[in-house]
Amino acid sequence: MLRQFLITRRILRDAIGHFNETDGWALASHVALSTLLAIFPFLIFATTLATFLGADRFAEVAVHLVFDTWPERIAEPIAREVESVLTVPRGGLLTVSVITAAVFASNGIEALRVALNRAYRVQETRSFIFNRLQSVFFVLIATIGFMAISLLLVLAPLAYRIAEQWVPAIETVSFTFGFWRYVIAVAVLVVGLFVVHKWLPDGRRSLGSLVPGIVVTIAAWVLGASMFAVYLESFATYVTTYAGLASIMIALVFLYIVSAIFILGAEINAAIIRYRDARAHVVPHGSEAA
């Protein structure tokens, strides 16, 4: 037990120390602002592409997938504004505004790349063109994934009614539509964390080495979001301080907290990898004589 405590303390000291030494808090603000600036362009681009391909309910589903993992008080005003933006009719797919939206959406991914490279302590060796194309590719993949999920959510009630006819006992395990929507949103979050930790930073890492930091990220995200929601309900005066900008400021502060947690998760992974590498290079006692 004492040994595990000492190992954990060493890893946390390494992770938090490197986070502070490399301006982790400043980098978290960069990631938070870039993410906020990328949300609208991503949803505009994704909705335009989905509408072009005939997925008419995409906007509603995409908004829920993005915001269902946020505290309700933070997400509700932002989601409402996003939905109003997405319902505005737009022109063809390959317009300047839509292409610009895709590029701005990829800027959010580039901010994550910078944060992860610094957390994992690697230098970027890939070209600017490769990185930008990869970011745009991730935007396209996320759009296609959201479209597939929106289609599944549309077909799910029909599939459930058909299943009831063949398996009457299925009624005892039925869940609400909102429950499944939330489960899918959490699943999208987990998959997204693995994808960005695995492929955005330079170098190679096994999926197993990513698990500790991602588990810490999700647990701290839930705890931090809950505490921030309680703070908003009990103490915050954002509305009187920022007036009409309150919802944006609340979202920005929330994203700042989440970004710091995200970077610390990567720092923990990097610290564990460093500890394991150091242990692997320790010469066993008596091996020199052999």
Explain this structure to me?
- The chain contains ten helices and no strands.
- With 290 residues, it is an all-alpha fold.
- Helices cover 79% and strands 0% of the residues.
- The C terminus is likely disordered.
Topology, element by element:
Blueprint: H1 2-21, H2 24-52, H3 58-67, H4 72-86, H5 96-119, H6 128-166, H7 177-199, H8 207-234, H9 238-242, H10 246-280
Helix pairs in contact: 1-10, 2-3, 2-5, 2-6, 2-10, 3-4, 3-6, 3-7, 4-10, 5-6, 7-8, 8-10
Largest sheet: none
How helix-rich are the residues, as a percent range?
Answer: over 70%
Gap between N and C termini: 33 Å
Shape estimate? globular
Strand content: under 5%
Number of helices, where a helix is a run of at least 4 consecutive DSSP H or I residues:
10
Indicate the low-confidence ranges by residue numbers: 286-290
Mean pLDDT: 81
Number of DSSP-assigned strands? 0
Q: What does the radius of gyration come to?
A: 22 Å
Instruction: Return the structural class.
Output: mainly alpha
Order of helices and strands: HHHHHHHHHH
Observed structural traits:
290 residues; mainly alpha; 10 helices; disordered C terminus
What is the gist of this entry?
It contains ten helices and no strands. With 290 residues, the chain is mainly alpha-helical.
